[in-house]
């Protein structure tokens, strides 16, 4: 009996951004040798309020959802002939639907903009409602730069949260035959009291030496993957957004959420979802 393999799940609303996400997800599923599940959320709330209900609202919205899914399935199969593709219409708010789908998925993929079943996607609420809330990686698909020479870019801050993101980045690089550019942003401490002369070159060398030491086990485990460490003086958002302009994928970590924390994504991950110039993978690390 063939063991069950978790699929890549992609949400679609039929928009151009969602179609790009379906293509990306199909490529990713094909590379990893897993099936693809395309999901459309039928959200009756914009049309059917509790005060003025529309009879059979779900039944009326479902046929258009199935048409959207049929088109997405054709796109995926044309993109990756032989890929196992399934579709599913589900009632509910898009963010909740995708969070539920993530429990049986290898990864969740959404487009950067939506118009309908997944409204807002990136700049609205759905991207933030999913990324960091689920245990699996979440990829928000944005246009890939025409000069994507840097391969895969991974943000690294020498914490445990970066471990899951690095593992994802190295695996992706191995599958795609690309290199990993590891960006480690650092800033000198803000002085308090009398200004003391600071050896910035010495601080940079110390930060780089520490980062290289932390990366050495990863480079040993993925000896077949070319790596480059880029120490950038500046804020992580600025450094990673700039690096994304020449990347096929930006990978960042997320601390996740616990019962006492309202914020799911850290400020860096949240800002990069809005400002990165290539697809962004948010990979949750250890719960804080």
UniProtKB/TrEMBL annotation:
The keyword Translocase does not apply. Residues 6-142, 152-284 form the UspA domain. Keywords: ATP-binding, Nucleotide-binding. It comes from the Bacteria. Gene3D superfamilies: HUPs. Belongs to the universal stress protein A family. This is Universal stress protein. It comes from Microbispora maris.
């Amino acid at each position: 009996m063939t063991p069950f393999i978790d699929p890549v799940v992609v949400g679609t609303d039929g928009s151009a951004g969602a179609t790009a996400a379906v293509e990306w997800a199909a490529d990713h599923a094909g590379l990893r040798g897993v099936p693809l599940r395309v999901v459309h959320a039928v959200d009756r709330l914009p049309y059917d309020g509790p005060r003025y209900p529309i009879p059979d609202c779900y039944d009326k919205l479902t046929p258009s959802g199935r048409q959207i899914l049929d088109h997405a399935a054709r796109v995926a199969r044309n993109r990756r002939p032989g890929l196992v593709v399934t579709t599913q219409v589900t009632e509910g708010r898009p963010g909740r639907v995708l969070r539920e789908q993530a429990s049986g998925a290898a990864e969740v993929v959404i487009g950067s903009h939506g118009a309908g079943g997944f409204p807002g996607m990136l700049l609205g609420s759905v991207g933030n409602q999913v990324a960091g809330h689920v245990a699996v990686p979440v990829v928000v698909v944005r246009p890939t730069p025409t000069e994507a020479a840097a391969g895969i870019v991974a943000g690294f801050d020498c914490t445990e949260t970066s471990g899951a993101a690095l593992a994802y980045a190295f695996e992706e690089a191995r599958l795609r035959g690309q290199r990993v550019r590891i960006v480690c942003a650092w800033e000198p401490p803000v002085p308090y009291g009398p200004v003391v002369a600071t050896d910035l070159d010495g601080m940079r060398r110390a930060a780089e030496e520490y980062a290289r030491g932390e990366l050495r086990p990863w480079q040993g485990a993925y000896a077949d993957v070319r790596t480059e460490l880029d120490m950038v003086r500046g804020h992580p958002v600025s450094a990673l957004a700039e690096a994304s302009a020449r990347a096929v994928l930006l990978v960042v970590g997320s601390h996740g959420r616990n019962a006492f924390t309202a914020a799911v994504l850290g400020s860096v991950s949240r800002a990069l979802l809005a400002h990165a110039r290539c697809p962004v993978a948010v990979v949750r690390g250890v719960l804080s």
